[in-house]
Amino acid sequence: xxRYPLWKYILIVVAIVFGLVYTAPNFFGESxxxxxxxxxxxxxxxxQMMGQVERLMKDRGLQxxxxxxxxxxxxxxxxxxxxxxxxxxxxxxxxxxxLNPDQExxxxxxxxxxxxNTPQWLQKxxxxxxxxxxxxxxxxxxxxxxxVDAAINARIQGLxxxxxxxxxxxxxxxxxxxxxxxxxxxYMADCWKENAYLTGFLGEACTTVVTPxxxxxxxDSRYYLQAEKELAGTEIILMRESEID
Length: 245
What we know:
Blueprint: H1 6-23, E1 30-38, H2 47-59, E2 66-72, E3 75-81, H3 85-99, E4 108-116, H4 120-124, H5 148-169, E5 175-178, H6 194-199, E6 206-210, E7 215-219, H7 224-231, E8 237-240
């Protein structure tokens, strides 16, 4: 019969117990939750948000299974646990309407989430469920800042380059567009807005001349400031009233 030192048996038992403890959280499942975070660097979330959310839930008669404040580095969040998804959806609608009165400029991100049902004593040991790969079941919030002016200017320059190439290929010396339709209508149909489409200038009193080498736009004194702003960053040459060359 093979015999080993006692310390080896003890080591095996400790390894098995260790493995069972850190495997156990995977069997407790998860509960639906709501996660609240700030989308503005000037707005910080603190423990007062927990009290505000708790009062909102009580006033609306929604039962919660716990509120948690998570200060992870510089980004703090408040998480609210619920017993079912129906309550979770109602709570999200209430929080969106209350915390973000201006939907065009929201202050907080209100996102669906899932919280583990692992007992507190296991969580204190950092025994958490194991997720396979990137877990996006609770949703993900992306905030993208786009330089709209630069994107528009790049699009306009691309159109002008295409137009010039076509003019060279077809031996066209120049092309003229106007800011109005042939009837000088107050409200133009989209089919007559070729000048705005080609240059990005939205003023009415203007004439644009496109040649294979350059683009020049003439307008009067009413639109000087507007033209300077809307043509900034493009290669279009602004010609003020009475300027010939």
